[in-house]
Design brief:
Bound molecules: P-hydroxybenzoic acid
CATH architecture of the largest domain: 3-Layer(bba) Sandwich
Largest sheet: 7 strands, mixed
């Protein structure tokens, strides 16, 4: 076997998505070294279309953390959303209910800001690595990998952070007896499109209809992001533009509202599920973001949860390297999971309230409308939604 080149660092970070890069950035600011390894190329990540809502706490991490203030210039502040059902829209006024807002700023831009910042600061982030495997997570962790030039390395670290996404390699290194996996599958998926069209509405519209769910979101003045509920086995090739716009019209048009149509420039079926891996730590391996949990996109929580994990995990590493105390590292999993389960509940609730199951009987359909009415007609019901959507206050 060829000789591996040995590298050492304090924290090895698997995955250069927003969670991995944000952690590396926060550590660097505190004088803690890290190396970030990513199997995808920079270009591949930059070209993946992802979701787009940031809680105020996530925006603060980007702006106050010195990553970028582009979110304030190029992002759009949204002070509410519309819930649309029975052909009528009902506004949930985030500012009026809980004094908060969210920002529409796609995850791809968060990635671009973070990767540019790490590069400018001389951070060690290696894209397109292959054969990355982690070892000795209960003692002195190591990562074996081959870099983009074919050079083989052994990276030695005090800790490994597995921020390697929903198909995490790190997660499966934890012995089965030491972890529990929680799953929930849904009988629907989202058909997502990018369309060249003007905005249909100032705010996002989450629509429930007898034909199923639809979400009208946005990207720029001229490109819009929209989704409609579909079967998880759906094939995008069966959907031409007419059929796509018909699906939107039947779910959202009516009472004076019409979705603005245009050429469809991207279409994808997005499968989703609810998943939690607990605890989020084993030995010297810490999981963060999608590696530890995924939520259905209806609550717009995925990226925000990942950034929350990183904020809490950073506090643990910072405290350990500055005082030698492991108290906050030991508290990481419990603190992170506290918010993860709130987000699981919220995302499950939004998903089940807004989607229409193919086999829904009359009772289920009428009950669902009762549920939607009870949310929009009650300040308390609306405030629960507003508080969860904008991100719960009082980070622990
Ligand atoms: C998006 O703009 O892609 C988006 C917005 C809100 C969601 C999901 C996706 O809940």
């Amino acid at each position: 076997m060829s000789q591996r080149k040995v590298l050492t660092t304090q924290v090895a970070i698997m995955g250069a998505g927003p969670a991995g890069l944000m952690l590396s950035h926060l550590l660097a600011r505190a004088g803690i070294e890290s190396v970030v390894l990513e199997i995808r190329s920079h270009q591949e990540i930059a070209e993946t279309v992802r979701a787009g809502i940031l809680e105020a706490g996530s925006v603060n991490m980007l702006v106050d953390g010195g990553v970028s203030d582009r979110v304030l210039r190029d992002g759009h502040r949204h002070d509410g959303i519309e819930l649309r059902f029975n052909g009528e829209s009902h506004r949930i006024d985030f500012q009026g209910l809980v004094g908060e807002s969210v920002w529409l700023y796609p995850q791809t831009d968060v990635f671009l800001d973070l990767s540019a910042r790490r590069k400018a600061d001389g951070g060690d982030v290696r894209y397109a690595v292959t054969d990355a495997t982690i070892h000795d997570i209960e003692s002195k962790p190591k990562v074996w990998f081959t870099d983009a030039d074919g050079v083989e390395y052994e990276l030695r670290a005090d800790f490994i952070t597995g921020a390697d996404g929903s198909r995490s390699h790190c997660r499966v290194q934890i012995p089965e007896a030491q972890r529990k996996w929680y799953f929930h599958e849904y009988p629907f998926a989202w058909f997502g499109i990018l369309a060249e069209a003007p905005r249909s509405s100032e705010e996002l519209i989450y629509a429930n209809s007898e034909h199923g769910f639809a979400l009208i979101s946005q990207r720029t003045e001229t490109v819009q992001r929209m989704y409609f509920q579909c079967d998880p086995g759906e094939d995008v090739r069966n959907w031409d533009e007419d059929r796509i716009w018909d699906a939107f019209r039947s779910r959202v048009n009516g009472n004076g509202f019409e979705v603005k149509e245009g050429p469809v420039i991207d279409k994808t079926v997005l499968k989703f599920r609810s998943f939690v891996h607990a605890p989020m730590r084993h030995g010297n391996l810490f999981l963060a973001g999608d590696a530890a949990h995924t939520v259905p996109p209806t609550g717009a929580k995925g990226l925000n949860l990942a950034l929350n994990d990183v904020r809490v995990l950073f506090e643990g590493f910072d405290s350990f390297y500055s005082t030698g105390s492991t108290v906050l590292l030991d508290a990481y999993s419990g603190r992170a999971l506290d918010r993860v389960w709130k987000a699981q509940q919220f995302s499950y609730w939004m998903t089940s309230m807004l989607h229409t199951a193919a086999d829904a009987d009359d009772f289920s359909r009428a009950r669902q409308l009762g549920e939607l009415h009870s949310v929009v007609s009650s300040r308390h019901g609306s405030a629960y939604l507003a508080e969860a959507y904008t991100g719960w206050p009082g980070a622990r």
